[in-house]
Amino acid sequence: MTDPAASIDTTRFVELTGAAYPVRIEYQWLNSERADAPIALFLHEGLGSIALWKGWPQMLCDRLNCRGLVYSRPGYGRSTPRQPAEKWPVEFLSLQAREVLPALLDALGIDARERSRMWLIGHSDGSTIALLYASAFPEALAGLAVLAPHVFVEPMAVEGIEKARISYETTSFRERLQAYHDDVDSAFYGWNDAWLNPAFLHWNITEEISSIRRPLLAIQGYDDEYASMLQLDEIKAAVGHTQLVKLTQCRHSPHRDATDAVNDAIAAFVRAHQRGISA
């Protein structure tokens, strides 16, 4: 295993001008010395950022012998916060997949060859973005692994997000989350307001993701507080070649609750398909 201190680049910033307004994106390379290795690109959860991933992306990249690319989406971490009074639309996840992520890849000079070898690793909202990217650009990746993905809205998700709002406004939750975002209210209310928008209750991407052609691994815990196993079952129904991993004693963050099982599953999945591509 490489020395983690030598593998993690310092945080950098890149300007994207093709979005609704110019934004500065915080990003970080892992194992950048492996110039010819495939990229594992990490897409964080609805309240996540580079910092909130902690050490897991580095651990997985070392296991996969990949370079890693981690970034904070607009509104999160040290990236440009939401503009005052800005409300994210119902299709905010699609906009991230179809506009922001491709613009970031362009800005970082990641060409078509590198994209065709790229693995997307998403968690929660990041998993949904990964699915939407794979459906919109079916040839521009090698495959994807999604943890606790959302493809439609369940009542338990709304209940969990309502509880999160109460906790944010009445407990130390806001203070703890502030360690991971320059503008914590931007991150929290961007996510929370979007999911609690009544129009979002009808959001459903199961038909849209049926165009995914690349290998797909979907992982979820039985104790997920935001979604049931119907999410994975609907993904499997839409994308028949999906490989499912359903974990016991695991909540909404499989990479934290069942790290070894998740790493083993992703490593086996990626290596099996890399062998197939080589053959």
Automatic annotation (TrEMBL):
InterPro entries, sorted: AB_hydrolase_1, AB_hydrolase_fold, AB_hydrolase_sf
Alphabetized Gene3D superfamilies for the sequence: alpha/beta hydrolase
SUPFAM superfamilies on file: alpha/beta-Hydrolases (SSF53474)
Domain AB hydrolase-1 intervals: 41-265
Transmembrane segments: none
Pfam families to which the protein is assigned, alphabetical: Abhydrolase_6
UniProt GO cellular component terms: membrane
Name the UniProt record assigns to this protein: Lactonase
Species annotation: Caballeronia glebae
Taxonomic lineage of the native organism: Bacteria, Pseudomonadati, Pseudomonadota, Betaproteobacteria, Burkholderiales
